[in-house]
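hey
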């Protein structure tokens, strides 16, 4: 008896509607018959006898936007016995983007052996966080959902300050009143009663440079109730460039419906990597930030710094023996990683895996890549035998040609 009760409780974990589905629903199209519209909200109305139903078009989908981010543990879907009610092979995506093709969300699972006339309890292949849940059916069949229920815990992931904000902050200008300076560091000092505040100038911004590259999952911003504290429509950019206009970074999101007097939990439209986080406000209003918190995981560099002074050939041999090769820098992201890696170098320059061949008359990467992206200092990209490239660890981290017998620290590819 005890075992049967346990099995029943385990089997019915999705039947307890512990996420109240009051969010906004949508679907790719709506099937209509006579005066009856099979709208998307029917999938969460508590009535299994009336269903959401798309038209018979290519790649149908249904989506709900929850009111907060959830850690989804189970999804229960009920379809009554009817034509097109079998949704075997439909995909379920969960994330913080409303894109319906799953390109900016995590795939929860593929529905297998769907049964009509009962609840199908569907579990993600791994834990997935998000506020958008999308059911997507490829092919030309309509998508039918009579009832959808969810189980999961609310995730206030921004309340855990798991990125210690000890980086360098900056802002476009600093508002001053009497002897009080509203400096940029106030946004990360742990005190919500004193704020960073720019002057009333065009296109204000605030920025922090973290000590390492992070995969940012959530940003929490608190502003006390005050004039200019509403930062609705401000843009958040994340990347490895300190440009404040976002031209060299990815746009995380636009802040919507900002509320004063509480933490606003802001999630990027898609996963974004970077060490520079910029909040930018267009127009002539000052930018006020009383407290900023970040959540995200640390990203490992593809490079490692060797703090030994060697010639280029010895450095090449060392890297190939202990790692993979001398570092190749093929794009701006690689350059950013190299800049971070070189920060602790004991020499002004660090060797890279870039060499000039007199025989073929061109520069090449020793990992067998053509030279396309470059960060040469002016006049340094010249053809000269017995030369290799080294990156300066300061002053824009430009590349210089150096004789092979000079000795520097060097960067290896892991």
């Amino acid at each position: 008896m005890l075992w049967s009760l346990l099995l029943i409780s385990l089997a019915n974990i999705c039947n307890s509607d512990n996420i109240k589905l009051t969010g906004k629903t949508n679907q790719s199209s709506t099937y209509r018959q006579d005066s009856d519209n099979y709208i998307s909200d029917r999938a969460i109305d508590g009535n299994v006898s009336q269903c959401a139903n798309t038209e018979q078009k290519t790649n149908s989908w249904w989506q709900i936007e929850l009111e907060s981010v959830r850690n989804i543990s189970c999804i229960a879907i009920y379809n009554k016995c009817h034509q097109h009610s079998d949704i075997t092979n439909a995909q379920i995506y969960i994330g913080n983007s409303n894109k319906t093709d799953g390109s900016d969300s995590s795939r929860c699972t593929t529905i297998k052996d769907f049964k009509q006339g009962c609840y199908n309890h569907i579990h993600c292949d791994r834990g997935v966080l998000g506020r958008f849940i999308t059911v997507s059916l490829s092919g030309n069949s309509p998508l039918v959902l009579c009832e959808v229920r969810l189980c999961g815990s609310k995730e206030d992931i921004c309340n855990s300050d798991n990125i210690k904000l000890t980086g360098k902050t900056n802002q476009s200008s600093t508002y001053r009143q009497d002897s009080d300076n509203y400096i940029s560091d106030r946004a990360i000092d742990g005190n919500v009663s004193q704020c960073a505040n720019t002057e009333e100038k065009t296109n204000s911004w605030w920025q922090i440079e973290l000590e390492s590259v992070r995969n940012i999952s959530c940003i929490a911003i608190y502003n006390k109730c005050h004039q200019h504290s509403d930062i609705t429509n401000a843009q958040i950019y994340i990347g490895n460039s300190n440009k404040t206009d976002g031209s060299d970074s990815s746009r995380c999101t636009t802040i919507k419906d900002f509320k004063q007097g509480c933490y606003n939990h802001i999630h990027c439209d898609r996963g974004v990597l970077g060490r520079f986080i910029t909040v930018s406000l267009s127009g002539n209003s000052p930018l006020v930030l009383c407290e900023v918190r970040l959540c995200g995981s640390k990203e490992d560099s593809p490079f490692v710094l060797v703090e030994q002074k060697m010639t280029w050939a010895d450095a090449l041999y060392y890297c190939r023996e202990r790692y993979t090769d001398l570092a190749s820098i093929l794009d701006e992201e690689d350059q950013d990683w190299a800049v971070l890696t070189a920060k602790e170098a004991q020499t002004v320059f660090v060797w890279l895996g870039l060499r000039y061949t007199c025989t073929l008359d061109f520069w090449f990467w020793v990992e067998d890549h053509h030279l396309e992206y470059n960060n040469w200092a002016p006049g340094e990209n010249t053809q000269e035998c017995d030369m290799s490239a080294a990156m300066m660890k300061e002053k824009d981290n430009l590349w210089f040609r150096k004789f092979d017998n000079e000795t520097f620290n060097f960067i290896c590819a892991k």
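Residues 202 and 284 are 4 Å apart (CA to CA). Confidence is low (pLDDT under 50) at residues 1-13.
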